Fold these 2 entries.
Entry 1:
Amino acid sequence: MSGLSPESIQGLRSPLARVAEVHEALGSTQERARELARAGTPHGTLVVAEVQTGGRGRLGRPWGSPKGGLWMSLVLRPWFDASLASRITQTAAVGVAKALWEIGVEARIKWPNDLLAGGKKICGILAESSAENTTGPAKQRRLDYAILGVGMNANLDPAELGVPDREVTTIRSELGRAVNLLDLLRALLSNLEAELGRIGDFGAVLEEWRSLNCTLGEKVRVRRFGHTIEGRALDLSQEGALLLATQCGTVEVLEGDIEHLRHGGEG
Ligand code: BTN
């Protein structure tokens, strides 16, 4: 598969990909990684598929995954407790953004964790975690595993992604040439390893997030719990929530989808 095989991936010597599975087709790498995690696979297991027939994104949305993309999920067994799980997505977004810059794509992070190039979505991140089955506050619960999914629109035409209602782009259309998927994976794994390795110093991660983002300063619309809020994105809280200046004062948004609004329209 485009230079990707368990052997070539293990040749990268990444601690995040000590175990690697490469499939021609899978329902979802996320589901396969979860299956492996439940069966006890170690930290640093990577599942890649050339095609996903049931790829999914945040909020249960379908994620078009035809041939040419890099569809992957990592099994992580984090050392930190469950209360820090929400940091994974933004920390990963910083790593993925840096990897894209390394291969020549000037990517920006749209809160919380979409990667855009030229204002169009080029990559999505899906982090899901499972805490140990003990009672008590999250602070005292260890994370059993986290599954970090990365959906990278790599060597395809945007039209192949089948999302006519959303503005999407691909690495190939940004660079004007195909990218070697093993080189892309190398850049992703090394940047993810570096960023996830300093998740305990989340203030430093968020500083980088700020320098790579395209949301702060923008007028945005947030849809949550059936209603919408509009405001200007001011900053992030210490744990990465979005602080919005609205007509009713500052509102902290913990999760959800945002739209960037430009000139009174949608952007
Ligand atoms: C989003 O932006 O909504 C997140 C998209 C995440 C897609 C990736 S592709 C690899 C992995 N497998 C899945 O089914 N989803 C993630």
Note: The radius of gyration is 18 Å.
Entry 2:
Amino acid sequence: MAYAFDPSPVVTIPVVGSSLLYPVHRIYCVGRNYAEHAREMGSDPDKEPPFFFAKAADQIVLDGKFPYPPATKDVHFEMELCVMLKSGGTDIRPEDALKHVYGYALGLDMTRRDLQNQAKKTGRPWEIGKMVEKSAPITSIVLAEKIGHPKKGKIWLDLNGVRKQESDIDQMIWDVPNQIAFLSQLWTLQAGDVIMTGTPAGVGACKKGDVMKGGVDGVGTIEVHVV
Ligand code: MN
């Protein structure tokens, strides 16, 4: 049978030092995974554990350009470590989780904060705030077999050269193995799944013309221009 129209192309991410492309399945994002960021968002990390939401795979951006989205006056940057799975399953134990990790990358979880806050207030879903076109600028993947599995390292973001976010990935409430274990109790994880692991405190607004540069020690850096 022929398709009624051309199917959407597979979304892929380049891999550093390889000619292979990583085909993306889903993007899972962790909310409030750093205590100081949970507090700046007005919640108590001791009472409310982290949780997950999603973006669409085709919202990934690889050219370092983030087009300011419509219907908002308050777009925020969130600097995040990204985890790329090469296999998956259900009920994965934390001690077995890292063997499913293909590599790591850096990403920005760009957010229409004003629409997200409205959704929170009215008890509605978060997609209008989070599942935004081109809202997942991401770098090429560095292989876990090359850099290992980073457990500690500075995570930071500068807006136009001014430091806005700075913490350490060891400050995650749920570390990467526990995120994979938790997700696998709710969904069937598989090769191609990307996890955005949450952002530290210091998130803020950006505007057209701004330059966001961030990184995680031991993984690399990302630079994204708001256009
Ligand atoms: Mn985020």
Note: The mean pLDDT is 97.
